[in-house]
Design brief:
mainly alpha; single chain
Length: 184
């Protein structure tokens, strides 16, 4: 069964990745944040949004190195490890931003905006590398270059919607939460 999941086009593989990091992980974090299961409330110093963004950066870029990417495409165990690391790093990022108590919500939102913009930037850069490169980076098959380029475009679009969209939403929420100073 795992072999069927690892096979397929690069674009399908990228849609699966982006679904995990830009949809599943934030939804998990929304469900967990501020609940009794929220680890950020118990250990807030372990959940820095900037650190979490850097960890996700390392995880995402490492798995897109040709050797690791090809290994994940051809070995079910490596593929499971890849997917688990994507979900883990992304959930850690989103929990770092959304978790914790109400007392630290504004601070987490402020640093979360920076973390989301950093994540948006590195996802866009990697997507651009994949979409604009003149050769197939992974050597999958004939027609793989166009597939890889489409996969890069999927990464750019998904990352923009998820990360930049969330940063703008957090910015809006911070602006709305500010007291009205100096107005009658």
């Amino acid at each position: 069964m795992i072999e069927g999941l690892t096979a397929g086009t690069f674009t399908r593989h990228m849609v699966a990745h982006m679904t995990l990091v830009a949809l599943v992980a934030p939804l998990l974090a929304i469900v967990i944040a501020r609940s009794r299961f929220d680890p950020v409330q118990r250990r807030p110093h372990w959940f820095s949004p900037i650190t979490a963004s850097l960890i996700e950066f390392v995880v995402i870029w490492a798995w897109h190195a040709p050797a690791l990417h090809v290994a994940a495409r051809h070995d079910g165990g490596v593929w499971l490890l890849e997917q688990a690391s994507f979900v883990g790093a992304s959930t850690y990022l989103w929990l770092s931003i959304l978790g914790g108590g109400r007392a630290t919500a504004a601070m987490r939102a402020g640093t979360g905006i920076i973390a989301l913009v950093l994540t948006f930037a590195h996802m866009t850069m990697l997507g651009a590398v994949l979409a604009l490169t003149p050769r197939d980076l992974y050597g999958h098959a004939d027609g793989a270059l166009a597939d890889q380029q489409l996969g890069g475009a999927v990464m750019i679009a998904s990352g923009t919607i998820a990360y930049l969209g969330a940063a703008l939403w957090l910015s809006r929420s911070l602006l709305i939460a500010q007291p009205d100073r100096g107005r009658p």
